[in-house]
Amino acid sequence: MIEARHLYKSYAKTEAVHDLSFRIGKGEVVGFLGPNGAGKTTTLNMLTGCLSPGSGEILIDGIDLFREPVKAKRKIGYLPEVPPLYPDMTAEEFLRFVAAARGLRGEAAEKELIHATRVTGIAGVQKKLIRSLSRGFRQRVGIAEAILGDPEIVILDEPTSGLDPRQTVEIRKLVRDLGKEHTVLFSSHVLSEVREVSDRVLILSRGRLVADDSAGNLEEKAGEGKLLLRVRGEEKLARAAAESVPGVSVLSIEEEENGVARLILSAGGDEGAESLFSAFAGRSLPILGMEPVRTGLEEVFLELTGDKPGEDKEEEA
Amino acid sequence: MRAILEREFRGYFQTFTGYVFLAFLLLFAGIYASVINLANGIASYEVTLGNMAFVYVFAIPLLTMRSFPGDRKDRTDLLLASLPQSTAGIVLGKYLAPVGVLFLGTALMAPTPLILSLWGKVNFAAAYYALFAFFLLGAALLSFGLLVSALSGTQAAAAGISFGGMLLIYFLSDLAGFLPGTALASFLALLGLAAAAGGAIFWLSRSLPLALALSGAAAGGAALLYALDRSAMEGLLERGVNALSPFQRFYAVLGGEADLTLILFDLSFAALFTFYTVYAVERRRWS
Fold first, then answer.
1. Domain tally for chain A?
2. C-beta neighbour count of B88 within 10 angstroms
């Protein structure tokens, strides 16, 4: 449905996107993750034809976005990070304008308008001026604009950004529901949101695609071969026992209360686990617990993007 | 295009801009008609319109300053760019909307010759042709305002630059009087123009050989003309600038017969600046 081929984009001397390629199939809900300045907004603007890449190709359902822009854009609904709304119009006037610009007139426009307002829950405010609407309702009007005309692809740039917790939950549900009828690509900073809503995650770091998989697979791959051990005994003895097993290395170790050491080990599969069991038993260090390490999407994200918590960079224009 | 045109046209009346423009135009039309036609007892509406053309210096920036910077401010430029509309369609919609407002304004001025006919003999053909020419002049100048709007980051900048540009266009023929009239000066000016055209062609096409070839051919033509007939080049600058002044073209047809060249000139002026506006919008997307 969406295919990006070797996209590059630079601003002055800054490279915003570097050799970005991916493909999104029909009906997929894909989360687009990346720290500030990673190139998410630039990429989404390119995918919607708002910005041209320095080089590369974008195909929308097989149509080249830059050779046949009007035809390709008929298949796309886009909500940028800041909802693009005319404050002097009522929500209804605005949506009628968008419907007309998408080539919908008369009964077809009416039908689409009713559908979009029902799905986004803005029927009660559609006669109000957009300037008087709350942030949450503006976001909903923006989403209504994106789904008007039933485009096959809906692209949402940080749809829950700046919303209060209740609005966030509602918009998240809305995005999930949109995924039942549309191909959805949405960007977010909130990892739990991406995990909850998307089938697949694309992680962008410094303009490069560093991961493309489901959240579950990414977590599984990141935790593969790692074991968490809780052992009764001194930290020093526990480390020595673990390191006595060939192929095992200690990734971290800390002492809990009551003389219990907590180790995270890199151990190769079941054989490693068995050898560890024997090594600790041989040194009279009782193993209180042994389980595979479960890596969260947060850790995966930090590892792939090379970011440390608290670091922040400026988002691109 | 139609959807953009409708929205932009309504937009003028969802804010005060459309009303302020109409009030401004009709106020000046009323004042000029009162002073020139009623107080002096002149039944010719062409004279009034000729004097009134100066209002465009203020009115054009008022109508076009919001066209593109307004979208950038509300971020609706992204909406327009993502809609299944061509850039030319968007620009045309944005151009025809203020033309529509101007048409409304000139239509509201239309009864004036009829009112004047109550007190004197009015040449209706000349009066309405002058009104049509007045509208065409405004429509042509709106394309210039639109280009400035597309190139400006803010409404204030668009208004200021457009106002300055309109002043320059208004006084173009007066300024042309200061230009040297010798053949050499004309030749040097033509060389400068050829170089500038070469620069513009390079900016548009990014092709240095094409820019050099075309500007070289133009410079060669100017050199040939200078060598063969210097007398033809005397006063060429002033004549050229006057020929390119939309206001001068407008004054020339007042009180005369219907002139197709005026229509062609104003349409070409509008087409040229609208084309540049499309290019400016596209270029911003590729930057």
1. 2
2. 15
